[in-house]
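User: Please predict the structure of the protein below. I'd like the answer in C-alpha cell form so I can feed it into my own downstream comparison script.

Assistant: Understood. Taking the following sequence of 425 residues as input:
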Amino acid sequence: MLVADRYRLHMCVGRGGMGEVWQATDEVLGRSVAVKLMLGHESDPSAAERFRLEAQTAARLSHPHVVGVFDFGTWDGKLYLVMELVEGSSLAGDAGAPQALSPERVAVVAAHAAAGLAAAHREGVVHRDIKPGNLLLDGDGTVKLADFGIARFVDDPSAALTSTGQIVGTGLYLAPERALGQPASPASDVYSLGCVLYQLLTGRPPFQGDTATALLYQHIDTPPAPPRQLGVGLPAAFEAYLLTLLAKQPEQRPPAQAIADWFASGAWRGHQSHVPTYQQPQPQQSHQQQSHHQQFHQQQFHQQQAPHQPQGRQSHRQPQGRPQGRPPAQPLAHTPTPSRSRPGQHTAPQHRPSARPSARPHNPRQAPRGEGGLAALSRRRPRKTAAVAGGIAFVVFLLIGMAWLAPEEGSAETPSTLPTATTGS
C-alpha cells in the first residue's frame, strides 16, 4: 500500500483505539520511516486541526532522545504522521510478565528519558502520556520518547479514567494533580517517569487498584512503598531520589534536566545523603487543589487551635480536674486569637512573659477576653453572685413598697377643703 504516493507500508507494528503504526519506506528519500494513520476522526470535526497543531509541535523537537517527526498530511480520508523509525521495541515488555531491569539499566533509561523530556519542556511541550509503551529502545540501547503531543487526544487519560470499574493503562502513571482535574505540567511528566522507573525496577507499578477510582485515590494520598521493601537490591541514593520523583506536590519534584544530569553523573550509586532536595516556589494552592485527607486534617487543626470553644468550659490552659485557686506548676502558653492570624496560616502557641505580674493565682475559670466585671464575677463565684443579686433585689422591692404605702404630702387636708370649696360656689 502506497500512502500519499510516497510512503510504502510494509507491516503494522502497533495498533490502538484510534490509530495504527506501520513500518514503511520513504520512496522519495529512500529511508525507513514509521507512518501513523489516524482513524475515527470523522466523528470529531476539530480532530484534523488538533492533529495538525500537535504534529507541528512535535516537529519542533529535535533531540537524540525524542522520536523525530518528518511529515504530516491527509490520504484517502485519513490523517497520517510520518516519524522516525526506531528499530527495536518499547519498554512495555510482555503484559502478562512485566520485565524488571537492573538498577544500572534503569539509570540509563532515566537519564535518556529525562533528557528527552527536558528538551520538550524547554519548548513548552508537555508529553502528558509517559508510559513504558512510549519509551522506545533502539538497537544500540538508546531510549527515545514517542507520541509527543498526539497522545492528548488519541489516548486521553482524563477521558479514559471516567470508565467505572476499569483500570486504564495510562492511569497507572497519572500524576496526583491530574487526578484532581488540574492541567498537565512538566512536573506531571516527571511523576509519570518516576512511576515508569519504579515499575522497571520492581516489575509492578507503584499503585494498583481494583477500580479506577481506587487507583486515583492512591496516587493522591498513598505514599509508594520503597522498592527495597519489595526485595529490590537498590542503592540508597537511587531509592531516595526515585521517591522525590513520586512526591505528591509538584513543586517537590526535580526538573527533568536535573534528573538527566543526576543519573548521568553516576550519583545514584552513592548514599542517601547525596540526594538533593527540591522545593520550587509555587503559588498557594486553592481549597479545591488539596486532597480530601489534607482538608480534613486542616479543619481538625483549626478546631484544636481555637482559643475558646462555645461548648462547655474546657480550656487548654489547665485541666478540669485542678481545684479552684490552686496555681499551675508552671506558666502555660497563651494561644493568640484567630483575628491576629493571617488567613491560611496556623499560629503555634508561644510562651510569652506577662506584661505585669498577676496579683492573684491563675484561676481555671478565668473569663475570656472582652467580658465585663459582673460577667467575670458571675463566672468565678456563681453562688455568691446569686446571693448578692437576691439581696439587692429584696432591698429594692422593700423601698418600692414603702414608697407606695406612704401618704403623699398634703393628702390629709384634701377631704375638708374640697366640700368647702363646693359650698362656697
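That's the full C-alpha cell string. The longest helix spans residues 382-405.
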